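Could you please consider the sequence and fold appended to this message?
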Amino acid sequence: MTTDVETVDDADDQGWSVSGIDNSAVVRTVYGVIGFSGMAGNALVCFVLIRVPSLRTRTSQFIINLAIADFLTSFWLIPFHMFPRAPPLTKGLSGELMCRLYISKYILWVSAVMSIYFLVAVTLERYVAVVHPLKYKRVFTTKFTLLVSACCWLIGILSPIFFFFIYDVRDGVCVFLPYPSRAHQMVFQLV
């Protein structure tokens, strides 16, 4: 008898890896160095941009948000790639959240997508400032900057929501729901 689900342990112990290379000490060390240096560098960017009043501009507001998103991405690299085995699931809501947030890598995807959106926001802000300098002060007001930042955070959280629904807890084990699952059907009904 075949099943239509794969447990996370059976499918791929290393997460989204192509081969077992993610398990090597060299690759884990590189992920650790990237994660810790990313966290340190982005924390330093936030510290400097917040502490130095002369650096507070519209661009720096977007760069601070970008640094926060990059900090979170660097932070989540460490547990996902240095310790690929998730702790055992507990019963109840905490097990569901562990499966859907951690094992599905939803939170890593959220931080990566937010980083991309803030990079686009910085690019567009700089484009308007350079190409249309007379419109810049009229368009990039404090309200508009806050609105764009809030939209980047919201869209960053909602864009990878699919990962939240393609994993489920069955018999105390987190399982990947391959196509076609109820999550896939829900997404295609919305489209």
